[in-house]
Design a protein that fits this description.
By secondary structure, the chain is an alpha+beta fold. The chain is about 40% helix and about 20% strand. It has helices at about 10-20, 35-45, 65-70; strands at about 1-5, 25-30, 55-60, 75. A four-stranded antiparallel sheet has the order 2-3-1-4, with helices on one face. Helix 1 (about 10-20) runs antiparallel to helix 3. The longest helix is centred in the first third of the chain and has 13 residues, at about 10-20.
Length: about 80
Amino acid sequence: MRSAYFDGEPDAQAAAQVLQDLGFEAVVHRCTDESYTETVRKFFEGKSGNFERNAVLKSDADPESFQTVIIRHHGRVTRGI
């Protein structure tokens, strides 16, 4: 399983969609305790805040496809120890 870090969840979701379209599994984990629904609700209520949460994407994609998609969507591929 490969992983990547994104400064904004929308970029992570877009990358996950591309990977899924290519036939790979891809899951986005938000770096917050707040649900996506709660974030959207606050946004439409006009409450100020950082609505672009950090996110981590995990996928079973092959290394080349994964790196290409992540870089094109402004993410950073994480390296294992």
